Amino acid sequence: MTTTHVSNDVIESFEQLMAKAKSLPTRRMAVVAPYRPEVLESVLQAEREDLAHYFLVGDETIITSVANSNGITLNPSRIIHEPDASSATPRAVAMVRNGEADLLMKGHLHTGAFLKAIMDRENGLRSNDKLLSQAGLYQKPFGKGLLIITDCAINISPDLNDKLKILDNAISMAHKLGWKEPRVAALAALETVNSNMVATMDAALLSKMSDRGQIQGAIVDGPLGLDNAISPEAAIGKNIKSPVAGRADILLVPGISAGNFLHKAIAIFAKVDIAGLALGTKAPIVMTSRSDSMRSKLLSIALGCVMAD
Taking every annotated instance into account, which residue ranges of this chain make up the domain Phosphate acetyl/butaryl transferase (predicted)? Predict the structure, then answer.
């Protein structure tokens, strides 16, 4: 696994995340298909707060119409007219590759279409030794601090090797946030190993690999259930003795269905702030759900700026 420099600034809240992002040089961000008002509002706010200068890549007619309908004033020189949806993302990716932009942001388009250009072997943003994965940042429900959940959006049914690479990306994010040795919970439906449940087997293997130093920069334990991974009371109630149980900083979900349900349950029922990125690429990719709020999109931009440092 890759060794990442641990930031001296420990970020434990979204307020600290914003403060850290503002302290960094202003980035340049290419935004693909910004056809929703909350996308435009978030990139304009990011510009006002000196996080990132925006470049809007897509159909200029649609972008202008959305802006005018919502009383949003844009800089016309920052709109890059690319009416064909299939060429908008490649154009934005090329801007990042050519050094014209530091970040890429997903606007109002399907995730599959967005990722296709990013994963292009010749012209995309793939990093040869990395696996593209998604990670979300959330406020911890118990105690202070933030929590990373991965992968809720990209890898459908990761095997053990995939999970190692997903963890590598998440641990790198944690180190950028100043978390020296994050505690990782490999989640499953049970906190005991069951040979009929692959998720429990993978979690146990990851735990043992961590014990033997095959996973660097974090402490990994599993299998753990969602409750006893984040709730000290649940961990005590089930008599789980673990350096991670009840105090996890990173949750590794077993597959995309579990991750997607978990993310949307948090977003819809808890209505809390969320930030999300795609990791494992040559540049940070701001990737939020199309239904995420303007605030979540702004926080995701801030997270991308910190990851680009």
Answer: 91-303
What CATH topology corresponds to 127-280?
Isopropylmalate Dehydrogenase (3.40.718)
The crossing angle, in degrees rounded to 10, of helices 160-176 and 294-307 is 90
Residues 6+ apart with CB under 8 A from 203: 186, 187, 188, 193, 222, 223, 224, 252, 254
Q: Give me the residue label for tokens 């935004």.
A: 31
Round to whole Å and give the CA distance between 20 and 193.
41
C-alpha of 258 from chain center = 16
Chain region(s) in the chain for CATH 3.40.718.10: 12-126, 127-280
| Contact (Cβ atoms closer than 8 angstroms) between residue 293 and residue 284 | no
Q: Is 167 left (phi over 0), alpha (psi -120 to 50) or beta?
A: alpha
CA–CA separation, 146 and 137 (whole Å) = 7
Rounded distance, CA 109 to CA 189, Å?
32
- Kindly state the helix (H) or strand (E) to which residue 20 belongs, with its residue range: helix 14-23
* 99-158 pLDDT per residue, tens: 999 999 999 998 888 999 999 989 999 888 899 999 999 999 888 899 999 999 999 999
**Domain boundaries 12-126, CATH class:** alpha beta
Looking at this protein, which amino acid is placed at residue 236? I
pTM tops 0.85? yes
Return the half-sphere exposure (C-beta side, CA atoms, 13 A cut-off) of residue 288: 31
